[in-house]
């Protein structure tokens, strides 16, 4: 009897976390394949490079999970990353205190998220349109201010340490990503706020009926996304010791892909912080492997696009299988059944 119960629990654990286990398995297989086909993949310097390059996407992917969890999308994260670097660099090179400049950068990203949230909840723009427009506005401001020329002059220890320093053997940016991972996981799976986020994505009408402030939840997830995109922008500027106006170009697709590959549904209600972070490592590993194999960068976007299509297709299939016709049925059946922390957010991580 005990053996049977243990076997049933194991099968249930695997079934509930199939996306997470799937992305871990995919990452392991790709790493094994690259180690067999390239002689420099499993070197300390290359693995360290992968870990560092995963940070920008990984940090933003955590914020994207919250947004996707509400059935939203944030296409402005790449532009927030770029313009945050420009804002911080402009303040520092203008003689402002470095730490105040960093705080201003994080506040800027949060403000952009707030504006995105208000456009969606108050102006009633679709998330895709609101954040697409914001992406264009922010990228245009970055170009206009810099004239397309990077801002150099960030060779200050207080700035360099965030992406180039170490705590023992662990690079500080990797440590920051781990902290963001743990905090995001805890908030999504261990707090009422996390349940509210997923309830909004699972069924907005049901969430309203049970007293959840849907608009506040929606605004808050975009603020979180903007804040984390700004944090990634600061880390990237620290790494390159410059603010490049095109630094975040294309990152929004990598971030969305990392979240979806990790098991977060674009239809809302299902989210995985751990899957998103591991998905970011998978994306970075694939890019690294393509470079090591000498494949032209022109093909990188083709490969990433295929990954996105496959991930979204699998996610849609899983979402349809697990929910059935729940969203089309009685809203009173959805709240306890689909937003339960034990059956959605907790088990997906």
From TrEMBL:
The chain crosses the membrane at residues 20-44, 50-68, 75-92, 98-121, 128-146, 166-188, 219-237, 257-286, 298-317. Coiled coil: none annotated. Keywords: Cell membrane, Membrane, Transmembrane, Transmembrane helix. The keyword Transmembrane applies. Pfam families: BPD_transp_2. CDD domains: TM_PBP1_transp_AraH_like. It is found in: Cell membrane. It comes from the Bacteria. Signal peptide: none annotated. It is a multi-pass membrane protein. This is ABC transporter permease. It comes from Schaalia naturae. The lineage of its organism: Bacteria, Bacillati, Actinomycetota, Actinomycetes, Actinomycetales.
